[in-house]
Amino acid sequence: MQGPRRKVKVMVTMTMVFIFIVVEVSRNAGKGDGNKNKLLIPSKRFWAKDAPSDAFWNRQQQQLNYINNRNLEYLNSTIKKVPDWFNDTVSLDTCEPDFRVTTQIKDYNSLPDRFKDFLLYMRCRSYPIVVDQPNICKDQPFLLLAIKSLVPHFDRRQAIRESWGKAGRLANKTVVTLFLLGNAATEDYFPDLSQMFNLECSMHGDIIQWDFRDTFFNLTIKEVLFLEWLTTRCSEASYIFKGDDDVFVNTVRIIDFLSNLSHAKAKELFVGDVITNAGPHRNKKVKYFIPESVYIGAYPAYAGGGGYLFSGQLAKKIYNASKQVALYPIDDVYTGMCLMKLGLAPEKHKGFRTFDIEDKYRDNACAYNSLMLVHPRSPQHMIKIWAWLNDPALNCQ
Ligand SMILES: *[C@@H]1O[C@H](CO)[C@@H](O)[C@H](O)[C@H]1NC(C)=O
Ligand SMILES: *[C@@H]1O[C@H](CO)[C@@H](O)[C@H](O)[C@H]1NC(C)=O
Ligand SMILES: *[C@@H]1O[C@H](CO)[C@@H](O)[C@H](O)[C@H]1NC(C)=O
Ligand SMILES: *[C@@H]1O[C@H](CO)[C@@H](O)[C@H](O)[C@H]1NC(C)=O
Ligand SMILES: *[C@@H]1O[C@H](CO)[C@@H](O)[C@H](O)[C@H]1NC(C)=O
Ligand SMILES: *[C@@H]1O[C@H](CO)[C@@H](O)[C@H](O)[C@H]1NC(C)=O
């Protein structure tokens, strides 16, 4: 009697383990590529997941996954021992430069300086806020416009305030505008703009600034710090637009779109100009170049960082997920990774034109009427387009 029963028990356990593995592998493999419902049979042995990746970011992510999935240890009788390298006491928030990276990345010394800087500080996520606007969301904005800017871009910010980013009531909704900045580091040879900048901050009260070098690779820091700020200072905002300071946004059209959303859709809204099937650029001359020693694999679907729109409810989840995703030097790809972690993907909306519209329509007011975002636009052009759209005589029928 003992024999068969034990056999059954063992078989049931083994079947459960097998099902767990298939589900887990297919769940991970299906994310981001629209194959969510397809059962994917892994081509490699599941245990291969334990092998450290050759690429630094991927290894960091494996460690984070391990740390955040300790409960999987209940399988420890069947899964082989966790490899030693996983145990490299990862601390998410270490702001001392991590000089171990100089030996952990084989071509570290030949990488461009921006990579060296990024990799040394990749584990640091807390920088002091030096200009805050703790009460800017007191009126529970329907739409928060959060615009990534740089200290010297005074004219862009002013053009946005005078046009599409005019804060207050718009189409019977409350709009709040906020500019997100890092510092103007002396090592980046900025002229001393501090007095002009201080004056701007006190005049407009719409700037937040953290003390980190405002470089392209640090935009991911800006994203994470902004998400943290949102959950503490602006958790009541219904929707958030986040974008660059060289875009034109048809704010009225966005409010119209948001007002018409169904409740279900509104909760997990994330729309923009979505890029799918992309991966890292391997050409050293491209701004987006990422070496193989840093990242291997495809990118998840992501919305181009020129501008995208998401719900306040989803923002909290993205912030949560970000704690489990290693910082990646390209901010919009990073946000796509966080969405993937949540099992979500951004949705493409054809009104977001981060690659501009045809030349012949650029000065046609009606071309902007049905769009949500166009990139790039100069400050002068922003003001001009906004005036066209607000002209009562405009007739685009
Ligand atoms: C897994 O390992 C832990 C200690 O590392 C042990 O306490 C636990 O009993 C093990 N679980 C199983 C199912 O073997
Ligand atoms: C991880 O490190 C801890 C303490 O340093 C040690 O007790 C443990 O055995 C290590 N685990 C593995 C899997 O190496
Ligand atoms: C404006 O919004 C308020 C509530 O937010 C509503 O009661 C009012 O009817 C709206 N007015 C118009 C003109 O839509
Ligand atoms: C990001 O900012 C930190 C803090 O100012 C700085 O140490 C680091 O070099 C910056 N990283 C990049 C890639 O610019
Ligand atoms: C939203 O609804 C209003 C009134 O129902 C309609 O006029 C408008 O075209 C709709 N907008 C969009 C973007 O669907
Ligand atoms: C964020 O994570 C914490 C802890 O894991 C959880 O308690 C909380 O509900 C999460 N919040 C959201 C919005 O997912």
Topology:
Elements: H1 2-30, H2 56-68, H3 101-104, H4 113-120, E1 129-131, E2 143-148, H5 154-162, E3 168-170, E4 173-183, H6 194-204, E5 207-213, H7 219-233, E6 239-244, E7 248-249, H8 251-259, H9 263-267, E8 270-275, E9 302-311, H10 312-322, H11 331-341, E10 347-348, E11 352-353, H12 365-369, E12 373-374, H13 379-389
Parallel strand pairs: 2-4, 2-6, 4-5, 8-10, 11-12
Antiparallel strand pairs: 1-5, 3-4, 6-9, 7-12, 8-9
Helix pairs in contact: 5-13, 7-10, 7-11, 10-11
Bound molecules: 2-acetamido-2-deoxy-beta-D-glucopyranose (NAG) (6 copies).
One 2-acetamido-2-deoxy-beta-D-glucopyranose is lined by residues 82, 84, 87.
Could you explain how this protein is built, in words?
- The chain has about 400 residues and is α/β, with parallel strands linked by helices.
- It has two domains: about 55-120, no CATH class; about 130-390, Spore Coat Polysaccharide Biosynthesis Protein SpsA, Chain A (Alpha-Beta Complex).
- About 35% of the residues lie in helices and about 15% in strands.
- It contains 13 helices and twelve strands.
- Strands 1, 2, 3, 4, 5, 6, 8, 9 and 10 form a nine-stranded mixed β-sheet that branches. Strands 7-12-11 form a three-stranded mixed β-sheet.
- Helix 6 links the parallel strand 4 and strand 5 (about 205-215).
- Helix 5 packs parallel to helix 13, helix 7 (about 220-235) packs across helix 11 and helix 10 (about 310-320) packs across helix 11.
- The longest helix is centred in the first third of the chain and has 29 residues, at about 1-30.
- The protein is globular, with a radius of gyration of 24 Å.
- The chain starts with a helix and ends in an 8-residue tail after the last helix.
- Bound molecules: 2-acetamido-2-deoxy-beta-D-glucopyranose (6 copies).
